[in-house]
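This is your field. Have a critical look at both lines of this record:
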Amino acid sequence: MFFVVFLLFSILIFRLGIVQIVQGEDYQRKIERTEDVTVNASVPRGKIFDRNGQIIVDNVPQNAITYTRKKGASQEEMRETAEKLAKLIDKETDQVTERDKKDFWIMKNAEEVKQKITPQEWEKYKENEISEKELYQMQLDRITEKDLSSLTNNELEVLAIYREFTSGYAMTPQVVKNKNVTEEEYAVVSENLASLPGVNTTTDWDRAYAYDKTLKSVLGNISSSREGLPKEMVDFYLSRDYSRNDRVGKSYIEYQYEEVLRGQKTKVKNITDKSGNILDSEVVRKGRRGDDLILTIDMDLQQAVEKIIEDELGQAKRQGGHPLLDRVFVTVMDPNTGEILALAGKKYEVKDGKALMADFALGNMTTSYTMGSVVKGATVLTGYMTGAIRPGETLVDEPLKFAGTPQKSSWFNRGGALRISDQYALMRSSNVYMFKTAMKIGNAKYRPNAALKIDPEALPTMRRYFSQFGLGVRTGIDLPNEQIGFQGEMTQPGLALDFSIGQFDTYTPLQLAQYVSTIANGGYRMKPHIVKEIRQPAAKTGKIGPVVEEIKPEVLNRLDATPGQIKQVQEGFRMVMSGSQGTAKKYFAGASYSPAGKTGTAEGVYDGPKREQYLKNGQQLPMTWNINLVGYAPYDHPEVAFAVVVPWAYQSGGSSASINNIVGRKVLDKYFELKEQKAKEETSDVIVEKDIYSKDSKEEEESVEEE
């Protein structure tokens, strides 16, 4: 026995010698082995300014408490840390779901959970007849409301924190709380970081909007740190070095210019031991906030236009305007560059008995309507371009009678025959001139009371030419989800006549603005854009950095019309607003800026938000009128173009029957008023700079003389 014990001890000592002496250094290195894990830390997004340098969207710093989960962290470890943190901060529990509560209850009540499963079911589980996943689901299903009600408010707060802990990814900071973090909470958590593994205090940021609801729908939204990457685009963003809990643009400008606004992330190398504990952190690359956007929008004009819409729409509703009238749109753009100067839309809503004007600027590009006579400029030019009519050609305006259809006539001539020119037709908005132009395009001859025989290709041909103006096609604006409108179903060739007066296809307000700009600038369809420049972040707060990229004007196409043909229509548009019988003369007479444009009304079946309500109640959809206006100024050298669209304005006259013209006049007045005001301010600034320069020069000369 002594010999056996001696032998065993000898073997043990020999083995220890090998481990400690021969392999000691290798084992020591394994013990001390660390891992380098590189993670990205988010940075503030780029800011958004208007064309004059006024801040629209900014970043506001805010205190934040974060948690970085180490690799292999157990549920128990995270729960214990959550319990400690819950004693130091207040955490809202509104995001906690029923499933969260059930998972937490199972974690807290291990013995009670076992009793939810019968002995027979345990036997099946042991024999692999029930999987672990199925067993857990059975436990979840058998947790009662009484069980969940046993969770105290403190436990729910712990759960809310624990939920944030588990929603992040290993070695990636996850925001636990960044809203309403008090100075006391921030300080007490900072003091107790040693006992809160993974918890840290830092500075986060949030988007701040300088103009409340102005342009809010166009600016778009970003996801929260809780939402992270949109599910449908996770792979796309992960391939571009995003983390799953990164905040990204979800809509419109924030989405369209995500790559510009996101910035360069801070790259941090976390050094961990073999257990996943963070030993040290090292900044590998400093981050830089995103580049800034300078919009083409003039916020002074934008706000003024919105105020005009609110005033006129509100007044129309108060004075007994049609109950279906609920929105007005205005697009203002530079016809020479395509820059959007204002994109305004308001929707009248009643909530809790209070009337509200909601921002609906997006409606300028996401909703479409029948526009009526405003498109007659395109009809006349299409007649020129197809060779159907020539500039200055006269046609007889008379009621047209076709077999099986109601009489078609112009509003100002219900019974006689009047020979009119193309410009007169535009000035007085003749329907018959447009009908006959369409008939000429389709090689049709008019015979009273006979069936209309017209080439079926007349309507497709007209649509093709209308697209040169931007009608019925995408304008190309630098925003997602632009709509192109709806094409009416061509059940009979004669519908080309309705198309010629804007009573068939639908267009967006933005398409109208591009269309009238194309006529205003001499036939060039400019690509509209809402971003003017991309600039680097400025070194000083409140300043604008150097230019990274300037968005230059882009010509999409040119009309197949000659300069003389375009001038013919331009003169007709001028006559609309200042001619002796112009349809808009009453509203634009005396304007010093020489406007030109075209009015339009379109009758059609109501197709707005209350449509389903009518159908549900078995009611017939009412016929309503859309009233619209396009224009530009000055007539001889245009610098601003606009479109006003007022859907479902009235049924048969009423106080809102002229809201399009009133809004249009006030918008142009305000544009030129602001232009003059800014010119005076610039002149004043130049004078001050000259005075300062002169003073500095004198002091410099005196200094030189003294030397």
Q: What stands out?
A: The longest helix spans residues 659-706.
